[in-house]
Design goal:
Its EC number is 2.1.2.1. 45% of the residues lie in helices and 14% in strands. With 422 residues, it is of the alpha/beta class. The two termini are 25 Å apart. Bound molecules: pyridoxal-5'-phosphate.
């Protein structure tokens, strides 16, 4: 058989370019990571060919005996890893896991209460352009803009005022420990379901370095590709012990939201769950947190505002309001130096969501490639140098070129999958 390079050189070249980019750029997007070669090996198999609508032992297609083994292992491992007694490994993505959870728990038009996108929630937690904001009556809570931490008193007040049927806790940009118990108490007080979307911290939770929402939430959703370091995908978990709820969740995934499961991705999820049970993974997650703290510390030393004053997880937000620098400009300047971050809205942000006055910085990917606290502190210093230049209005072209050269050196010292050649 011919290789892709021969049969489809255009796609092969774009993939090769992306491999080089991943090796040669520093990845600080908090939701990204590098899956292991074994996760990618499982995903690149003949399992992609198989239709398996239904669930293990109850399929709508023949020939499912081997994929049944795969899906059962994935479910069992997910339950063991997170201390759940229900797992659905079929959601194609985090957004679809949330859509299925909503479908199982509430009806269109019902009131839901989630964290606003501008304050660190996800689109699927009730944002206007998303299904969650269109099909439900979405009320949104946010941060206390003085402390940068979740305003639980506001959550409680909004819950009593609006009597939601569903409360969503979880985030895409929050650097502190969430008090899951407090959310459950608020949900119980108004008779609402509590859905926790732990997509960002699932790896930290699996390793025991971030409190688990499983004992507190009725339903927990997550992606499998962020700190958890698996293939792109979604997962639904519960330990509520409610067979009726589990049946509704299964029905909401298939046939409610999806057709056939992606069995090659489910195999890769199973591989990732096994990896996450290892001691190496537990140590990795500790290094992720240590590295985030090391970086946040440098920003603070250099006079930058870190939202909430620091971090307890894998990410932190830098507010550039005082410096008058936009997230958009900072993101672009760092990109020219081969440092990938993302612009992010911060509390009291005067700029639009497309421009913003902040950066979100996360350490899961750099930690996977072996950066230690010293590397991270040096890296944070380079970022501050570039931000200083932007804040003073100096031309930063030479500085960016200088940092880009140092980035290349640091990346070469810590290959992700191995040396890549352009
Ligand atoms: N939930 C949270 C908290 C997220 O941060 C994200 C993605 O960034 C998602 C859900 C959506 O996941 P996906 O991109 O797989 O749909």
């Amino acid at each position: 058989t011919s290789s892709l390079t021969t049969t489809d050189p255009q796609i092969a070249a774009a993939i090769a370019d992306e491999v080089v980019r991943q090796e040669a750029h520093i990845e600080l997007i908090a939701s990204e990571n590098y899956a292991s070669p074994q996760v990618m090996e499982a995903q690149g198999t003949q399992l992609t060919n198989k239709y398996a609508e239904g669930y293990p032992g109850k399929r709508y297609y023949g020939g499912c005996e081997h994929v049944d083994v795969v899906e059962q292992l994935a479910m069992d491992r997910a339950c063991a890893l997170f201390g759940a007694d229900y797992a659905n490994v079929q959601p194609h993505s985090g957004a679809q896991a949330n859509a299925a959870a909503f479908m199982a728990l509430v009806k269109p038009g019902d009131t839901i209460l989630g964290m606003s996108l501008a304050h660190g929630g996800h689109l699927t937690h009730g944002a206007a352009p998303n299904f969650s904001g269109k099909y439900y009556h979405a009320v949104q809570y946010g941060l206390n803009t003085d402390t940068g931490e979740i305003d639980y008193a506001e959550v409680e007040r909004l819950a009593h005022e609006h009597q939601p049927k569903l409360i969503i806790a979880g985030f895409s940009a929050y650097s502190r420990i969430i008090n899951w118990r407090r959310f459950r108490d608020i949900a119980d007080a108004v008779g609402a379901w509590l859905l926790v979307d732990m997509a960002h911290v699932a790896g930290l939770v699996a390793a025991g370095h971030y409190p688990s929402p499983i004992p507190h939430a009725h339903v927990v959703t997550t992606t499998t590709h962020k700190t958890l370091r698996g293939p792109r995908g979604g997962l639904i978990l519960s330990a509520h012990g409610d067979a009726d709820l589990y049946k509704k969740l299964n029905g909401a995934v298939f046939p409610g939201q999806q057709g056939g499961p992606l069995m090659h991705v489910i195999a890769a999820k199973a591989v990732a769950f096994k990896e996450a049970m290892s001691q190496e993974f537990v140590q990795y997650q500790q290094r992720v947190i240590d590295n985030a703290r090391a970086m946040a510390g440098v920003f603070i030393e250099r006079g930058y505002d870190v939202v909430s004053g620091g971090t307890d997880d894998h990410l932190f937000l830098v507010s550039l309001i005082r410096q008058g620098v936009t997230g958009k400009d900072a993101d672009a300047a760092l990109g020219r130096a081969h440092i990938t971050v993302n612009k992010n809205a911060v509390p009291n942000d005067p700029q639009s969501p497309f421009v913003t006055s902040g950066l979100r910085i996360g350490t899961p990917a750099v930690t996977t490639r072996g950066f230690d606290e010293a590397d991270c502190a040096v890296l944070a210093g380079w970022i501050c140098d570039i931000l200083d230049a932007l804040a003073s209005g100096r031309d930063s072209a030479n500085l960016e070129a200088d940092v880009k050269a140092k980035v290349a050196e640091l990346c070469a010292r810590h290959p992700v999958y191995g040396p890549a050649t352009a």
